[in-house]
Amino acid sequence: MRSCICIKYILSLLLCSLLLFAQDDVGFRVLSPQTMGISDEGIASFVIEADSKKIDFLLITTDANKRYSIEVNGERTHYCKSVNLYMGVNSIKVAGYKNDVIIQEQTRELFFRSKVDKHLKYPPAGYSKKYFHNQESEKLCAKCHDMSVNEVSGVAFEDITKSNCYECHKSINQEKHSHAPSVNWLCTSCHNGEVGVLNQEDKDKTKYSVPDPIEEVCFLCHKKHKDEWGKKRFSHEPAESGRCSRCHNSHSSPSEFYLREPSWDLCTGCHKDKIDGVHVVKTFAREAHPTHNVKDPSREGKELSCISCHNPHVSNAPSLLQSETSMGLCSRCHKK
User: 24-130 belongs to which homologous superfamily?
Assistant: First the structure.
């Protein structure tokens, strides 16, 4: 009996030794992002520590089969790469190669949540918000990057590459329409480190939190909207609650007005009863009025969408109509 116990003890020691050896012998470590994290942007910034003696190059592969290659050399130990995400669960594999052979792999599971689509708004069980920009985490980057804020409040960079935020976050402005504070790298205009009543969980977790609701931050620049909207009778819920970023991406977007999606897709993310593409109101021909996939006569070069008839923020007309009278609304398109 004693010999059996002794053998088990020896085997346990050997197993622990092997595990410790394996941990010490790794060629790379993914330091950020943490797995099972939630992202509110379509980009994840990977920070990887790699040993050039054990790794020739790293290959990051998304489950949409998009690949990002990083050459590992003896001049540095840490490598950064921004990876595009799609809505929902993303499984991203990082592989380390030596002599064209995979010697190590790690996977990161990330959830890119939608601000508007109810099916993609809430992550599966086990996912949670992870925070990077705090004093402890930033030590990972301080060897290569100046982690201080070097912007002057309200003064755009003449050379945006001189912003200390640029090198790691330049992908946020990759889309066609970019928001002025973002494209000028006035990051702390919005990322002021404060929290609102709806994101108290972010308090003291990150240096660059944004208050939720964000309305008062937006109104610092968009003051005329604050003055105008207060005079209207009806408000759209996202505008009334001050949650501008539910519909608008404050960095950049392929859609006009920095919308997170084209307006028709954005609206039907919540108003799914309108997703059949026709309106409940009948035309004079007693046919349902289309809501998209046709030209918008009131806006040259634009497609008809919900905002052709409805104001997405405020209105003096019920249902947030763009005109207080039926004829006024119809005449926006039907001039004759």
Answer: Immunoglobulins (2.60.40.10)
- Looking at residue 332, its pLDDT comes to 87
Q: pLDDT tens digits for 91-115?
A: 999 999 999 999 999 999 999 999 8
Question: How many other C-beta atoms lie within 10 A of the C-beta of residue 327?
Answer: 8
Q: Could you give the angle at the alpha carbon of 214 between the alpha carbons of 269 and 253, nearest 5°? A: 50
Can you give the residue ranges of every domain in the chain? 24-130, 136-261, 264-336
What whole-number distance in Å separates Cα of residue 188 and Cα of residue 132? 16
With a cut of 50, say whether residue 20 has pLDDT above it: no
Contact in structure between 195 and 189 (CB atoms under 8 Å): no
Confidence of residue 46 (pLDDT cuts 50, 70, 90): very high
Three-class secondary structure assignment of 228-287: HHCCCCEECHHHHCCCHHHCECCCEECCHHHECCCHHHHHHHHCHHHCCCEEEEECCCCC
> Rounded to an integer, what is the distance from CA 271 to the centroid of its chain?
22
Compute CA distances 199 → 73, 134, 196, 210, 288, whole Å: 41, 17, 6, 9, 42
Does the CA dihedral 175-179-180-183 come out positive or negative? negative
pTM: 0.83
Distance (Å, whole) CA 319 – CA 301: 26
Sign of the torsion angle spanned by Cα atoms 20, 53, 169, 82: negative
